[in-house]
Amino acid sequence: MNTLVDLDVALEHFDPVIGLEVHVELSTATKMFSPAPNPAASLEDFAPNTAISPVCLGLPGSLPVVNAEAVRSSIALGLALGCEIRPTSRFARKNYFYPDLAKNYQISQYDEPIAYDGAVEVELDDQSVWRVEIERAHMEEDAGKLTHVGGSTGRIQGAEYSLVDYNRAGVPLVEIVTRPIAGAGARAPQLARAYVQTIRDIVIALGVSQARMERGNLRCDANVSLMPRGATEFGTRTETKNVNSFRSIERAVIYEIRRQATLLLGDTAITQETRHWHEDTGQTSPGRPKSDADDYRYFPEPDLLPVSPDSDWVEEIRQSLPETPSVRRRRLREAWQLPETDFHALINADLLDVVEATISLGTSPAAAKKWWLGELSRIANDRGVEVTSLLTPEHVVELDRHISEGTINDKMAREVLLAMVEGEGSAAEIIEARGLAVVSDDGALRAAIDEALRAQPDVLAKIREGKVQAAGAIIGQVMKALGGQADAQRVRELILEQAEQS
Q1: What is the pLDDT of residues 435-482, one digit of tens each?
Q2: Exposed, middle or buried: residue 44 (CB in 10 Å: 0-12, 13-18, 19+)?
Q3: Distance in angstroms (rounded) separating the CA atoms of residues 171 and 31
Q4: Tens of pLDDT along 135-186?
Q5: Torsion, Cα of 101, 105, 109, 111 (10° steps)
Q6: What is the CA radius of gyration of the chain?
Q7: Are 305 and 71 in contact (CB under 8 A)?
Q8: Angle, to 10 degrees, between the axis of helix 427-434 and the axis of helix 410-421?
Q9: How far apart are the C-alpha atoms of 73 and 137, rounded to whole Å?
Q10: Which of 229-243, 331-345, 488-502 has the lowest mean pLDDT?
Q11: How many CA atoms lie less than 13 Å away from 413 in the CB half-sphere?
């Protein structure tokens, strides 16, 4: 399909309906049903097939045992999503061909999930709030990972053979499933992105997952269908699997709306199927025909007892929950009083935590925003690293204190900042080693001013005539003469003082 209708054309004829399934890998020390180490608990890369146990490999006689900490994390996440916690939930076997699950079925939850009937508030870019209803949040185990070798695309088509790594098999997961979201219209793609951002914020606030999308700790399946304008029944949906960035979620929803609209306007039916997202082309491609629940032949897991959390334990978890991301953002927005574009930029750059930490140590919101969102983000982008890996809030606070005290000016501070990133020491050490302190001695400043005035003797007369901006030329010459290390404010004061006296 080479040419798709534009998004606005698609929206003229159809109302998009979306549904989002977010998979969260929990960061417990061990896996969901085995004592094997959990790769999702750290940023360490395990050698293939080393984070495993007989349970992960489905060996005869091995039996699963539920990870109590994973249950606690799942309850906390369910409560944070506004869900009811089921007094008794149970696991089931989900059956279809799993080449990356050795026992050939997934232990999941089906008709009795641990959490259900919830809702979250999702803030869009214009600060409007959309209430997204949660149908369920259930526990399950992740599958392993296949590497297809010999093909040009890295996919199974055209590959010569496949390698399986069972390290991820059995990693504890919570799958969060929304109810169908209708009525968002042109905002549906933005809402999809903002919803997943909200889930990630909640997960990080709870501390139950690394939530690093590039590592697959948090990923989204995006369901999209179209209803003709005025219709009351949902259309046939597709499910774009394992989208792992906020930008890609929005792009994938836009693409599917356009693709499906193109087919429907051409009198071609939509196939219910899973689809793969291609980041490089910004397109989706067919996966497999989408199965319904009956096709998975769910039946109760015979090797596990039902999960029946004590009501006091659930209440204890409820009382320990942090503030929700939406409440926190409102609090920070009010406290910091930053321009809305700057505040949203901090959110989109995932810098709220580090900026809040910097402000809590005594730096102004404007200064913390400037350094993290400006200079440090630029350096991080140039180097392809996380901005928070460059410096700590303590480093930024120390740098800003030297500016506030007049030890260095803004230009010098940028030089010091880069040296700090390069590991040359603290701000104070770099300032001393490089001789970067601002010249504020009146004697040295007056001498430089006198030298500049000899070259431009008419400046003082202009200032006396009310043309105060004429002082700028002298300030510039003084700064040049002193290698940019003059205290510009003090230079200005001395020039005006001299103009009054002469």
Answers
A1: 666 545 455 556 666 666 666 666 666 666 566 666 666 666 666 655
A2: exposed
A3: 5
A4: 999 999 999 999 989 877 777 777 889 999 999 999 999 999 999 999 999 9
A5: 160
A6: 30
A7: no
A8: 110
A9: 12
A10: 488-502
A11: 22
- Please write the tens of the pLDDT for every residue from 360-415: 999 999 999 999 999 999 999 999 898 999 999 999 999 999 888 777 777 778 88
Which residues in 196-332 belong to E strands, given as ranges? 218-228, 238-243, 273-278, 283-289, 299-300
- pLDDT at residue 418 is higher than 80: yes
Rounded Cα distance between 89 and 110, Å, is 9
* SS3 category, 377: helix
Confidence (pLDDT) at 498: 63
Candidates 392, 429, 393, 399; CA nearest to 414 is 399
If you count them, how many residues does the chain have? 502
Rounded Cα distance between 416 and 428, Å, is 9
Q: Give the bridge partners for 136, in sequence order.
A: 116, 177
DSSP state of 273: E
Question: CA-CA distance, 59 to 63, in Å (whole number)?
Answer: 9
Q: Which helix (H) or strand (E) holds 175?
A: strand 172-178
Fill in the DSSP letter of residue 485.
Answer: -
Cα-Cα-Cα-Cα dihedral of 492, 495, 496, 499, to 10°? Answer: -170
Q: Which class for 397: exposed (0-12), middle (13-18), buried (19 or more C-beta within 10 A)?
A: buried
Given the DSSP bridges, would you call strands 238-243 and 273-278 parallel, antiparallel or unpaired? parallel
Dihedral of the CA atoms 44, 45, 47, 50 (nearest 10)? 50
Q: Map tokens 């496949």 to a residue.
A: 162
How distant is the alpha carbon of residue 172 from its chain centre?
21
Q: How many CB atoms within 10 Å of residue 45?
A: 9
Parallel/antiparallel/unpaired status of strands 161-165 and 129-141: unpaired
* Extended beta strands in 44-149, E state: 84-85, 92-95, 105-108, 115-123, 129-141, 145-149
DSSP code of residue 230: T
The candidate with the shortest Cα–Cα distance to 103, out of 44, 169, 40, is: 169
Cβ within 8 Å of residue 223, ≥6 positions away: 18, 19, 20, 21, 237, 238, 239, 240
Paired strand residues for 63: none
- The answer to whether residues 190 and 126 touch, using CB atoms and an 8 Å cutoff, is no
Is the pTM higher than 0.85? The answer reads no
The conformation of residue 323, written as its DSSP 8-state character, comes to P
DSSP 152: S
DSSP 121: E
Per the rule left: phi > 0, alpha: psi between -120 and 50, beta: everything else, 413 is: alpha
What 3-state class would DSSP assign to 238?
strand
